[in-house]
Amino acid sequence: MQRWIAWAVLLAVVASVGVAGAAPSRPRLAMILPGVIQDADFNAVGYQALKEVQATTGVQTAHSEQVAVADAERVAREYLASGYGIVAFHGGQYLTIVQKLAPLFPDAVFIMESSGQIPNLPPNVWNIGRKFHEGFYVLGVLAALSTKTNRIGYVAGIRLPDFVASLNAVFQAVAKYNPRAEVLYTFVGDQNDPVKARQAAESQIAAGVDFIVISVNLGTVGILEAARAARRPVLLTTFYTDKSSYAPQHFAASLLSNFGKPYVEVTRQILAGKRGGYYEMRPGSGFGLTPPRNVPPEVARRVQQVWRAVVLRQERVDEITDRVVERR
Fold first, then answer.
1. Predicted structure pTM score
2. Do domains 29-131+259-283 and 133-256+287-311 have the same CATH topology?
3. Which of 24, 266, 280 is nearest to 124 (CA)?
């Protein structure tokens, strides 16, 4: 009997040591995306970043697509209730939801994206600042040096700070590199509506535009159709991914986004115990530029020089996010 008691005590001790010495479980990460991951655009690169996090850090991941802002809080709460310790919002439109949920769930960590560093965020929030406007400044230089009509178009969807700042950067670039040129802009209200985007592009082309800087997602398809149907050559730029294969004769360059680098680094910081902070995406750190095409060689060389200067912060790019400032 005493032998059985001794064994029971020993097993209890071993069990208690095992529990006490066990490594804490790794948090799981869920990403909420505004569109479909097959869009070959913003949502696709977000999903690629999520898979890279899983492959690089071993963190288990999940995602939800086509989550409207009105539904994002509910979806996030469902993930939190299911034991996910990290919730990432791939899109600047979710800022207010993060600001609401983070204080209510102090044991969780939230990742959000914005046009820059947001002040006074809760301590359990990581802020990825996307300096799109610095890349769009270079696209503006390309448009300014390439246009023959001195009329440049800019088509955006939702009037988010990212896209307003990018438009202002285009204005700044055109004012510096081709003061005679005029910038016509349209916010169609939807990033993924090809019909609205095509109508905006057709209107700009009818007004003399021969170069359009694209700031929509699936709406790009409609702008391509407008460019193909135009009576004179129309060049385009796009962002997130290289779409030149869709219309090789119309694309001048693409601003590429690599969200894998910031998401992997932020996840590593979270695993190391740092529950909040700021990571900046900008040219040379998350953003790249495809070699300019369908433009004169001297224009391509000048644009690449400007890109390198922006990467090194040798050329200043202003950011104004609260209103459109037309620089003419």
1. 0.85
2. yes
3. 266
